[in-house]
Amino acid sequence: MTAVPLLSDSASKRTRPSASSTSSSSSVHSTRAQRRSGPPSTESAAAALVCGKHYQEICPPDADNVSRSAATEQQPLSCVNTGGSSFSKRAGVICLLLLTSIIGLLAATSYFNNQPDAPGCAMTYSRPQFVEQTEFSRSWTRYSIKYKLYLYREGGYDAFDEPSRIPVLFVPGNAGSHKQVRSIASSAAAAFVEMIGKDPSAVDHGQIGYDFFTVGLNEEFTALHGYSILEQADFINDAIRYILSLYPKTRTKHKLSHSNAAFALPASVIVVGHSMGGVVARTAFTLPNYVEDSIRAIFTMSTPHNNPTASLEQYVESAYSRVNEFWRHGFNNGTLKDVSLVSISGGNLDSMINSDYTYVGDLAPPSNSLSVMSSGINDVWLSLDHQSILWCAQMAKKFARMMIQVMDARQPSQLLPLDKRMSIMRRELYSGIEPGALPTRKETPSDKNIISSNYQYTHIHDGDTIRLSPADMRILPLGRTKATTKTKSLHLLPINGSASTDKNELIFQLLYDPRLFASFDDAQELSNLQILILGCNRESDTSAKGGSLDIHMDSSNTEDKRDESFVCERISAPTTAKLPLKRARHNPNVPVQSLRYSEIPLQEFKQYSHIGLELPSRPGKSGFLEAAFVKTPTQLDKTPGYFQLMMPYAIRIWAGNEAFGMRSRIRIDIPENPLFVLRAKLTMRRNEAAARALSTASRFAPIVFQSDGRLFESKFWYDQNTFDLAIHGRGSYLPSDGNTDFFGKDGHLVGMWDGLYIDVFADTEYYAGFDIVLQVNWYSSLNRMVKRYDMALLALSFVWACLVLAHQLRTWNGELKLVLEYSRLADTNAPKPKFPDCLATVEQLIRNGTLALMLAAAALTPVIQDLVAHTMKNSWSPATLASWKNLFMGVRGVGWTLCIAPMLLVVASLGFVALEAIVLTLVCNLTSRVFARIFKLSGKAKAIAETAEADTIASVKNDGSQGAKDIAANFPMRPLIATVAFVVFVCTFVPYQFAFLVIYMAQLITTVRTMVCTHIVSQKPTKSGKRSAAVAILQDRSSYQLALLLFWTSSLPYCAAELLVWVRNISVFWFEDAPSDHNLANMAGFFALRILATYHIVPRLGRSSELRSSPQSWAIKGLRVATYGILVLSIVYAWLFSIRRPYTLYNIGNIISAWLAIVQFADYIPDLIDTAYRSYFSPQGSRALSPATTPRSSPLIDQDTQASRNTHNTSRSGDKLDRKLR
């Protein structure tokens, strides 16, 4: 055999210990091994070259290896291994996956099965007809190819297919359909017909009904694709222009009023937007084709106004930033002064968006906007999911009734003036119990003269309380009334005899059950019932005033047998709130039984001697009424910290406490933190004496009402003793333009969090107090992390992917010890791989303290943010302060509670990366084993093994990559042509996101192919009985390729949105994309690294100990520092900024890939220059190198590595000669 002479002197010197290094354990060990083994064979020589000196430097043996037994000394130098049980080798990863699985399963089950609210919607039914506006073609808009405009017609109500009433445009949301308008439009048509049936003259006052238009937007994913937002908004403006152009003809063609009332031509359109449709409607204002004042009212349902739900694409973030800035300043500069914005959200059941983002108090002043959740809207009282907010019967009917009341066709805007319509919308949408919402509302003077002059009977009550029951209503008229057709009675309560307390401290409370005055089944009569409140004086004390009522009472109507005459007038009508009682669970269509509650300061009655209640005389089957003068209940303020709420926190109110009453209010002064859900348990304390005296139970079950000072979130609990209190409010990221504060009429800042309010309505005759116990509900709190921090999971996963790659490169460069498993060392004498696999790296990140360091960073970052913000709040501008708070996950809350979500997400994200690594490893391994088996059965395995071994070992550099001269000399033309075609397609037709997907799949195929070669070569028998050195090289290459695959996986989600929109556009033959979609630079880094990583690993940049003696140390050190610097900066940026803007992570991944490609290609530059020079002067020299040929040294390879390369090239020629001799 001629293999032995192939070991040149330089190679022998590399394996022989020098005199200067005899003290090192590695040299002694290597010398002893050489003496025992004798002259090495060809494969063992190749193994020594591949895993020789550098392998010993990366994995130095322990100091006590020199003194080990002879049997131990016979073992070759090995890296740090994880010998032992399978669990001990992967204990960290296993525990991490278990912990991540527990967190994920708990969060998922809590998210889907443990929402604080239960659904209870009734279904709506309609007879829809959609009339496509075919004339709205390319002459009106360039988007007519993929978008359509329809006119909705309700069967049985709408007789004409032409619009003639008030135009309304419905804009569907993300992947929404134009057909989603049918429930709202059908309910509006039914409400209009019902109104006209009761009051035909309403038409003359401008209430002529609505024409609902709706747009088909190709069901595009506007939540994920910002360019679609701009396109749809542009189309909306064109549609509005077209809609307004129809009415000059149709208004004169169709007669709307029999009295020939004059109606103005529409100059604006009401817009109703669902989900992202609301954002599209607001975006329309910012575009050049917007017609001024063409939109005066926007109603949005479940629309994330403040921040995008998923910032997976740059245009989404830029569209939000530009639109929100325009709206915040538009009310100050007068652009939006007459525009009203109403935001209705579904609350806890909306799993598609974070309801925090539906709050518009940061975008518009309270004079032009309101935000409300469906759980607090009268007659709805339900949390609604993202889709049911459109079809829920309770919500659709309430929304239709509100829409009917704000129309006025006599105005060009087709709406009532701004102040009037905002007043109506607040009355219809707010419950009326929120802090600051109960004082009386002012009525116009014409509303005072509505009382009749006589009653069936009048009764003066003693004391300061009126209590009525059905029995009282039947007894009071006995013997006191004559035959009459009058149906009303008057009940008077003296003010002067109420109490000696200062009247400034007294309020008048009225609570009643409408069933006291009507039949139990007469739901319509119950809903229309009104109790008028009068201010009365004796005629002897004051003369009658204009618009007053004279009430003459004969001796039969009073107990003191004196003739008395009262003069009364109606006071400003109070805000009457509805308090829901037990729902008819068997039929959601049955209206919820409710009480009525009013509260009036006694100052409103200061000029009167009595308060009068005008009541229906006919008693019902059940119900009650209670009216009383009481001292203003004291608001009970509690300030528990979240640490106290970890354990049960009890609040007690009893009859002797001034806070207890018909309505008892508690303010829980806790920070605004939407992460926590508080479990509340209510225990009522009975008044034992009163309970024994009463023959029945309490008149009504306690009712609990949750609200906040922003009039945003409110909710009732009725017939429940245990309930969950959840907080919504501002989103995690506050506006950063410094113009977010709006002030109310009283000069106070609107929209600021001032705690959680709990109102308890109880029967004070039956109960003497109550206890409320609060405690954090951890299980329910988990589901609130899902929609609030889903983007954080992606961003932190990218951080971990960068850390994994950085750790692998440091190990490859010899700065860290390589940890191998025995599973990778089937032959302990075989060459060892040097590039760590992904799972082993994750295990090392857990064991070396990186996970603990990241947990500490996650805990300290929000705390430092909050501390600095609190310290600098008087020094920094609002914009600077908001930008500081918006770093990382956004500061929401105070204290240690800021740490919980970040720490959980750090653990979950690492577990997510580990799961990705497992899936990728399994997919590649199983697929490669299947193909390796197929090749073995087909007889191709031997040829593949010889080719792979020859191409790997004979032309390999020490770092496991293909030689530059062979690449330059044998570069195939087919990949070059494919590359050029690929670039052309990206620049012209396909978006770069599609190109990245192709690159990712190609990398996956390359990894599988390398693993196939590894499996086949590892099974190839050798003469020495040892594993070929090519296996270690192939394992390194496959580990590197798999590491890139794992790193690129974190960039996949940011391509999905554009690909979905692109495919949908292609289906309707729309080929116009965003300009940046064909930017070749957005995929150049991935593409270049994919080409270079096929047969080459990034060069090893050496350790600091080698750099001191290397003449090229400046280049190696510079590249090493730059590589680590780019990775560190990427990690810091992703940590601080990318959670809010995760789309930037794709660009960061592209930059890192481009830099690795530059480093990898820079290693080839000297050899490529040398190859080109030799090819020019000696064409034969580029094809084959003689044993005497010495390659040019690369400045990126240290001297030892260069010597190894020279030896391998020599070995290649010897292998060729050896094959010829055989």
From TrEMBL:
Regions of compositional bias (Polar residues) in chain numbering: 1181-1193, 1199-1212
Organism of derivation: Coemansia spiralis
Domain of life: Eukaryota
Family named by the database record: Belongs to the GPI inositol-deacylase family.
GO MF, any single term: phosphatidylinositol deacylase activity
Biased composition (Basic and acidic residues): 1213-1222
Record's subcellular location: Endoplasmic reticulum membrane
Membrane topology per record: Multi-pass membrane protein
Domain GPI inositol-deacylase PGAP1-like alpha/beta: 163-405
Composition-biased stretches (Low complexity): 17-31
Transport listed as a keyword: yes
Any one Pfam family match given in the protein's UniProt record, by short name: PGAP1
Region (Disordered) residue spans: 1-43, 1181-1222
UniProt protein name: GPI inositol-deacylase
Xref: InterPro entries: AB_hydrolase_fold, PGAP1-ab_dom-like, PGAP1/BST1, PGAP1_TMD
Biological-process GO terms, alphabetical: endoplasmic reticulum to Golgi vesicle-mediated transport; GPI anchor metabolic process; protein transport
Any one cellular-component term (Gene Ontology): endoplasmic reticulum membrane
Enzyme Commission (EC) number: 3.1.-.-
Domain spans labelled GPI inositol-deacylase transmembrane: 834-1161
Function: Involved in inositol deacylation of GPI-anchored proteins which plays important roles in the quality control and ER-associated degradation of GPI-anchored proteins.
Keywords from the named record: Endoplasmic reticulum, Hydrolase, Membrane, Protein transport, Transmembrane, Transmembrane helix, Transport
Residue ranges crossing the lipid bilayer per the database entry: 893-926, 975-992, 1039-1060, 1080-1098, 1119-1137
